[in-house]
Design brief:
By secondary structure, this protein is mostly helical. It is 73% helix and 0% strand. The two termini are 28 Å apart.
């Protein structure tokens, strides 16, 4: 249930920021702060993404993409994999 809540609150916070709805933005941000340790995706997805990023680094054209993608993985998962 926490995964689903976090997955719903991320877009709500972003839309509230774009539409300049300050109260909604801070409400969603406060709720997300309570869920900061919850990983939205399962561990195997993050492990797969990490290995794909390491593979992409071998090609010069995709280093930037790999860097962006690897930084979407939460810190605790990234340190556990490495």
């Amino acid at each position: 249930m926490k995964r689903l809540t976090k997955a719903v609150l991320f877009p709500v916070r972003n839309i509230a920021y774009r539409w300049n709805r300050v109260r909604l933005f801070y409400w969603a941000d406060r709720k997300l702060y309570e869920l900061r340790a919850v990983c939205v995706m399962p561990f195997w997805y993050y492990r797969w993404l990490y290995h794909i990023c390491l593979w992409l680094v071998t090609f010069n054209n995709f280093k930037r993409l790999a860097d962006l993608a690897i930084h979407t993985i939460p810190y605790q998962v990234r340190f556990q994999i490495a």
